[in-house]
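Quick sanity check, Leucine-binding protein domain-containing protein:
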Amino acid sequence: MPTSTLRRTSRALALAAASLLALAQAQAASPIRLTLGVLNDRAGPYSDLAGEGSVVAAEMAAADFKAQNPDFDIRVLSADHQNKPDVGAGIVRQWIDRDDVDVVLDVPFSSVALAVHQIVREKNRLMINSGAGASEITGALCSPNTIHWTYDTWALANGTGGAMVRSGGDTWFFITADYAFGKALERDVSEVVERNGGKVLGSVRHPVAATDYSSFLIQAQGSRAKVIGLANAGSDTINTIKQGAEFGVAEGGQRLAGLLVFLSDVHSLGLKVAQGLVLTEAFYWDLNDGTRAWSRRFAERHKGRMPTMVQAGVYAGMMHYLKAVKATASKDPAKVTAEMRRVPAEDPLFGRSEVRADGRVTHPMYLFEVKKPSESKGPWDYYRLVSTIPADQAFRPLQAGNCPLVTK
């Protein structure tokens, strides 16, 4: 081959190699694009405990992660599911098909969460749930595409229910919200009551976002149960407690057990009404230096309001997901969730958290008592820590949930 031809061939090969290298460098430098959608109640009975505050938490997670990882392009969407499974399902299908959403976050209201739970599995996306409580999510209906952060009905029953029975509340009557969460909470608390030698005398169910609870309270008072268990949440819990005080439940010798009470509920009730309530939470803003520092940052962005455990769970779950995406250099749900299970989460909000095979995230839970007005030292100083429930005791044992993903 002539020398001139060899030179031309060499130059062509060099140019091709340079082009390939430039293309590889451009691809390596291109941002990792992720879209996450916060789906919750934005104007109804669960808007204070989740709502806009959960969007703020997700945006904080995106900003905090991007500050250390500028090659990530993270978009946060949000929508109101109106506490309707069909509305929530429609939003998620549109998010995935049109907006290429990778992860659905929060999703309070268990009926909606269970609908979304099926869609993300069908379409091979992820849900990191912080807002819903039904323990079925990691039980018989468990999915490889759902991670359940923060709390569930089993943990609430084990915490508040167990504490009430041990303190003498051995007969119960339930006022229960008539949907998946309320029924699951009543069931799980009933099992704890009966396992500890107590007895359930009856229950009554009310529609979500009811306004008048008088007939339900009259039935509960007529049962003469020592404990009236409120298997509801949000404004339902707030209004039941308020009307219970008006009906003189405490004066009649009965105790109200708020089985799911959030910091936002206590804020709405005020300490004069809420004082003495025993409750179980996964997070409290004033628990330690780490929770205080993050919560003050949150409050600056959310009208001075301190975060609920649901909002803290949105942040923690999203951060653990983002770290797993970085570690695997992939958005593939199977690879990412495998990494989330392999490496425990460590953050100032929940401490050490582990993702189990059934999707349940385990971390300590806390039993609190609401302070008297005279004990509070300032705004949002509402809780006194009664006890810490270790992670290995706080949630249902792995083998007890009948999750098909768990090897027997």
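Posting the structure with no commentary besides this: Residues 3-29 form the longest helix (27 residues).
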